Amino acid sequence: MSDQLTLAAETRDRVGKGASRALRRDGRVPAVIYGQNKEPASIHLEEKALSKALGTGHFMNTIVMINGERTLPKDVHFHPVTDRPVHVDFLRISANTSVTVAVPVVFVDEEEAPGLKKGGVLNVVRHELELVCDAGNMPSEVVVSLKGLEVGDSLHISAVTLPKGTQSAIDDRDYTIATVVAPSALKSEEGAAADAAEEAAGE
Fold this sequence. Notes:
The protein is α+β, with helices and mostly antiparallel strands.
């Protein structure tokens, strides 16, 4: 299960671009907490603490306690040049709220995949799975076994054992998570993509 984080925040007295820029100069990141039919709360967080939380790799599917409120991060905006966080949106939730989160996929049993042993390459289509789960019981990862996969095989969501209490947010199709491709097929795909890019550039 994902850990719970706690971030200290202060209320923003002023909003707007000028006020936000002033906050960022002081090492603070503007944010907003919304949801549960309450008024949105404008706050700001310490950039260092936020960056540390973002560095965990599973910030977006972690419950974050902010000044006693249980929240779930919904969106983080980054500066296009410096890549520093410039704004965060948090959704208020209760312990039994049903939420949709993006959960990282961890592939295991590579040594038991004949296709990989023969030199095949794992082509990951989805690095994360959109899952619906209880806010108080969010998984930190989905473990997917590659056991028995041959070159040319595809791994679909129907073959994955999802964590208890979760279900796929996409339920209208049996989508592909990964495929095992031959190295030559991968090269020809890359070559075709390069050719297409050159043709597009020459137009």
